[in-house]
Structure formats: structure tokens, C-alpha cells
Amino acid sequence: MGGSGKISGQLFLSDWPFASKNLKPVKQNVELARKLMREAGYRKGFKLTIHGPNNRYIRDTAILEYVATALNNIGIEANAISLPTREFFTRSMRHHEFSVSMLGWAPSASGFYTFNNLFIFPDPAKKSGNANAGQYHNDEVEKLVLTAKNSPDKTYRDQLYRRASEVVINDVAIIHSTFNTRVGVWHQT
């Protein structure tokens, strides 16, 4: 990331009001990852393609290739494919073609915008899930987000968004990295 990356362990930077103090970065442990792969029944690994845009984000193609290399190191035969931005977003967001894809996100100060677009199940009638390419769904997250949206108490809203962040991260709904004030999101299904 040329110095602009930051390990966070969660969706938001630590100074954001909905950043959880309960979420910490997980240390990389290649041996443990290999062990977990074996325990999950993937002794010989499996194949996976990760997709992302090219020339949309800082070093996006290099990041895709780095992630593929890291996955190869634990026994997942990963291939990275960068696509022109328009093609990538059409195929990823509209048609949900990719099992793993890269998405950058700039969270808003309200919290609802981020959660509604990334973690509420896609529903055009409700204008939700527009960027939920993995079609993640969790009833608890939806309840927390909708309750926060309708609460006039900012302190309570922030508390609900922090809890929603914890659920999303603990569900491994995304594989994430935080870059300065933007969120880089890896969707998986």
C-alpha cells in the first residue's frame, strides 16, 4: 500500500465512533492456517480465483496478487484476476459472479450507509445490500442496524453499530484490511 495501509482487525479505524474496542488485529500464523485447512478436510487444499478491479484503488492488482500468494502459502491454489472497473463491478455487484472479490469502501459518519450497503441482504425494494456481493445475511446484524437507524440517541446508535461490527467480523462475513480512512473489503461466500 506504499505506506498507506493500516492493520485494524475491524471495519473502522480505531478513532471512529463505531470502532469496537473488543476487536483486535489477528496475528498472521501460516502454520495454524495450514493446520486448520487439514482439520477442515482440505489436506490437498482447493482452487480459488479472486477477482478485483484494476486501476480503481491504490495498487489494487498488486494487492490481489499478494492475497493470492498468501493463500497459496497455506495450500489454497489461488489465482488473481484484475478486470476493468466497469466490467468488475457489473459482474460482481449486479450479477454476483465471483466467490471472492475485492471491494474498497469509504464509510460514512452515520454508520447506516456502510452497514445497509455491505451487510444487509440485497433487496432493491428496500435499497439495501447494494454492495453485498457475497449476499451475507445475519438477522442479528439486520436488527442492530435497523434499530440504530431509528434511534435518536447517538450514543446508543454508536453502541449498536459497534456490536454489529463485532458480529460481522466474528462471522467472518468479510476478510478485511483498513487503509487510512477507507475500508478494503474482501467479500466471500
UniProtKB/TrEMBL annotation:
Residue ranges of every copy of the Solute-binding protein family domain listed in the record: 2-121
Superkingdom to which the source organism belongs: Bacteria
GO biological process, one term: peptide transport
Keyword Transport applies: yes
GO molecular function, one term: peptide transmembrane transporter activity
Keywords for the protein's UniProt record, in alphabetical order: Signal, Transport
Pfam family, one: SBP_bac_5
PANTHER family registered for this protein in UniProt: OLIGOPEPTIDE-BINDING PROTEIN APPA, PERIPLASMIC BINDING COMPONENT OF ABC TRANSPORTER
Similarity-based family: Belongs to the bacterial solute-binding protein 5 family.
Name used for this protein in its record: Solute-binding protein family 5 domain-containing protein
